[in-house]
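Batch job 17 of 40 flagged for manual review because the log was empty.
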Amino acid sequence: MTEHPRTLKGPRLMLWPALRALSHGELTPDQQQWLHQSLRLTQAPRTEGPGAAESIAHRAFTDDAGTRLVLDVARVGASGWVFTLFYPAERSTADTVEEHRALFRETIDQLGLTLVEITPAATADEVLVPSAGSAEPAFAANWSLPHADLERLWPHLGVRKDAPREVKEIKLRELMDAPAWSAAPTDLQLQAQRFLRETTPPPQTEPQG
């Protein structure tokens, strides 16, 4: 991978998140210094793209496919840490995304932070499961999603079409628990029920003695 000048300068870039990892915990000044050195970050905030106001450090580089990317670390509140891989136009390759997924998870573990979620999720532990009393999705009270086909619905749930079934199951159950699910198209409800039946293994029976 090729490094670019350490800060984003020149024409304004429209950045889009390819991968985002949210974690929380306290970091000492020494840990923050290690974070900057480990990810080779410039200790200057990113000025382009969503969430730039919370950015504390970033690095621009080019992946092996020649796509220019930006790795960013942001701080949210007193103890929230957001690691994001951005792309400006061409979407980064799947290999690059998965390489940074591993990097983000390793960094979070090394710092003793608690992983909250990774978007898009690749495993069940990367999915944020809402707790009781937490904010509901925008469509929770009134059905407003545009599709009656489950395959076209996944992106609206923040799930890739090729995401593991366990990730899809968690997101789908969250949707089905929302009050608005009763107003969802009948075909979609049937598809969702069929998907969960196919996901859930049949109960095991005790061998007859």
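Reviewer: the log was empty due to a logging misconfiguration, but the result itself is present. The two ends are 62 Å apart (CA to CA). Unflagging and moving on to job 18.
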